[in-house]
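Worked example 4.2. Below are the chains of a multi-component assembly; read each line carefully before continuing.
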Amino acid sequence: MPSSTSSFLAETAAVFAKDWRCELRTRAGLNAVGLFAVSTLCVVGLGLGPLGVASSERQAVLPALLWLILLFAASAGLPRAFAHEEETHTATALRLAANPAAVFCGKLLHAGTLLLGIELLVVPLFIAMVQLPVVSPATLVAALAAGGYGLAAGSTLVAAIVSQARGKGTLFAVLAFPILIPLLLLAVELSRAAVAGAPAEGVLQQILLYDGTVTVAGLMLFPAVWNP
Amino acid sequence: MPPSLEFEGVRRDFGRLQVLRGVSARVASGQLLTVLGANGSGKSTLLRCLAGLLRPRAGRIDYREDGPPLDAEDRRRQVGYVAPDLALYDELTASANRRFFARLRGVGSERGGELLELLEVPPQRPFGLLSSGMRQRVRFAWALLHRPALLLLDEPFQNLDRPGVERVRELLVAHLSTGLAVLASPTPLDLPLPEHALVHLELSR
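Applying the procedure described above to all two chains together yields the following structure tokens:
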């Protein structure tokens, strides 16, 4: 068992490192994500400005806008995780060489770190541009970590499912909607609590439950989707 | 126990298109099964079924190495497979592709280095910038990386120049000293193998 565990971890790390190496060589995904992130951030930030939203509504509106920006930026990069492997015919080599669960985990780690990068780029700029006061920074960090992971996990799961289908872009949107909306609502709620300094342990627990459920569902479903 | 492959009544269709209609053969260690047939006769489909990349609609595939028959998932991880539509990562060099798949296979990367050297592949050139013949050589190095007992070769000499064909033939003969192979080709091939080491299967459309 320990050798199979270490083999699984080594395969996961190999897929993760390979995805980043390919990404850094072409920068196609990174450029698309960066462009979406910065352009939506500019539209929201410059459109609203520090006084664009009435102070009574800031706590309700701004966290929702922040998650919309993160969702748009993630949508530019995350759906490509598996479709690119199918389109370039590298999926066959990967199927023949790797454990399906390790492929899923490697792709999930790649998506998670990509989303972390988006958050590190977008969130400080957003807070500065709209002058959003955050009463509880620790809660905001928890919302971004748990919500970001959930967004990466949900997107990876849907990307895996649609990679075998025609009309991948449309299908991704149709499938991602019911899977990601509950998470986004919870993440917005937790971010609002961070801005207001309100207690929100229950919401955080629900997001963590969502994260765990989507991860387990992905690990269980992926071999059936990936294998012929 | 030496490795062996036996398949019986393998059938596969794609919707209304019946491609394989009950194909059977048996190959023992040290033997090469040559699958001949015109374009569209199902050679590649048969190899994909044997590799575990396609599920046959009916029939039995019994491949064993030193124990019970391997299921499709285990076959997928064990076999060496070369096919025209098999691609490695265009963005990575031949050497980086070799290191990546060596990590996945759990084998030392020096084996891949030896194979690339033997096949005279420029290791630092991205796979996407290699000529079609060089890509075919890299596919061979990739397929032999984990020392598979069963090699599945779909038109293996495609795009290879004369030295490339010679290298691949040498590797194939060396492989058959301990393993077995299935080779699909639309035309008969001249292979330096004794008659008892060859098994033939002809597919028709």
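Take a moment to check your reading of the output against the notes. The beta strands of chain B are 4-14, 17-28, 32-37, 58-64, 80-82, 150-154, 180-185, 198-203. The two ends of chain B are 36 Å apart (CA to CA).
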